Amino acid sequence: MGEEAALERQWRLPAVALRGALFALVAVFGWASVGLAEAATWCGILALAALPGVVLPRHRLLAPAGRLAEVAVVVLGTLATGGLPAWMLPYLIAPFATAAFDAAAPAEEGDRWSRLRTWGPPALVALAAVGLIAQAPRVADFNRGTYVSTAAVALAFGLASAVGAWWLRRSRTSDMHHSQLPYAEAAALLTQLRVVARQLPGSTLDPGGIATEIVDTASRIPGVERAAVLSAASGRRLVVLAEHAEERVDWETSPQLNSLLADAWAGQKPQAGQVPLSRSTQGPVASLVIPLVAEGRTVGLVAIESDDPAAFGPEAITAAEERTKGAALRLETALLFEDVRSMATTEERQRLAREIHDGIAQELAMLGYGIDNAMAILPPEAGEAKGELEDLRSEVTRLVTELRFSLFELRSNVDRQGGLASAIADYARTVGASAGLRVHLSLDEGGARLPASTEAELLRIAQEAITNARKHARAENLWVTCEVDPPYTRIEVTDDGQGLSGEASEGRYGLAIMSERAERIRGSLEIRPHQPHGTTVAVVLNAGARPTPRAEAPRPGSAAWAAADRARTEQPARRPDRGGGRGSQ
User: Fold this and answer.
1) Could you check whether the bond before residue 487 is cis, i.e. omega within 30 degrees of 0?
2) pLDDT per residue over 457-477, tens digit each?
3) In the 3-class helix/strand/coil scheme, how is 272-328 assigned residue by residue?
4) What is the pTM of this model?
5) Mean model confidence pLDDT for the chain
6) Cross-referenced Pfam families, in alphabetical order (predicted)?
7) Domain map (residue ranges) of the chain
């Protein structure tokens, strides 16, 4: 009820102003109609009756009692001064409106006074009406009609003000509740997710693990030779979550280019035919696509191929549907959990970057300015003190530089349009330019994308390896190799620095973090010395799905690498069939 309390505090001043304006109005009317003495007497009594509503507007008992006293004083004062000209009746607007505004507030759980607030406005209107009408016979006959009309108009205006105040409070409360509704629903859903996640086995919310189980199940169908689970990604493309095949399969990830994939996704029905589901398949094949549908939504596709064109008849299609039944909901749950975790991680990294930038970074900058000012006012004979300040200023400059690198790393993400290789290359170029490293890039990225969570983990591993080379290795050259051909991926960072023996403790802590990230995405991390000196950090996903190499790649730092590097600098080569590129800086 914090929002309701804030709303009441917001309208407390307007309520007091309304009472003050109406009080001044009836005081002027009374002075003009019944004289100063009587007007002052009844206005004083009215002020005492209004005191609880002004001082204690939220009190559960005194505030309603004060409004009741205000109505009673208005009715008695009107009758005691002859009924006409009914100079006190305009003040009825104040107690009616405040009572209705209070009655429109939502009842708190266990509030015993909520019914008193609810029936307060009609009780006040009834009291005023009965009191004024009951005294009508005491008014002179020639004034009775005017009196009744005046009293009716006053009650109507008071009732209208009560309805307006009630509607205003209700509308504001509804607006606040509607603005908080998405957060309330999100909190409830996340709470349920946390409870369910604690009850399920640890690997159940891993999309890769669930996809692997689906592929293993589909691969046991008679006749199946190649199978994969495809899920939606950005840019109307698909990503390969898991696959089964004897040799490397280049699965089609664009539904627009394959009618079976597009029809299965849109129609949510199994599609069979002889259209290859991969770019690398040659010759006659039998293809089967089973959509994974959960709650009316297509979550993913199970793509199956066989070299026997007649492998998938009606019985095989029915068997495939039965084997994949129930997997869609599990996969969707895992993908949603992964998406929520990714958004939370990104938001937390952005929050940390903002706090560092607005906090310690600014304080360090001010400290540097203070050292500069101190050096400016040092006397010429303070040579030793000046040297100490210069050393301190250099250290502050180093810390500010490290903070800038940290902020850049925190804010770096894989662009939905650019891809993993582009993000790693941008980071390597920026770090290399700032640290004086010569960066050599070898990028080979096809059109297919990895899952967003996997790309994020690979980017962090590459960032950590590049940061270690910059901070601890004292290297001059940095070689970054990025091969992305889902599900196979290899990221390799090599430097010509002082090697693992020179790693600081924080650098070795970074190696442990990289190892944990690699395990999280089921990758293998290798850290080995680079000859003649330096370190190589490589992370590989799905090594068994590696494409057949066209030629042995030269080792970083070798003569062959240098020659290839010069050739790439003069004329960058591109793979026409994959859309990736190779370049150097």
Assistant:
1) yes
2) 888 899 888 888 887 777 889
3) EECCCCECCCCCCCEEEEEEEEECCEEEEEEEEEECCCCCCCHHHHHHHHHHHCCHH
4) 0.49
5) 78
6) GAF_3, HATPase_c, HisKA_3
7) 7-105+118-132+150-161, 207-337, 416-546
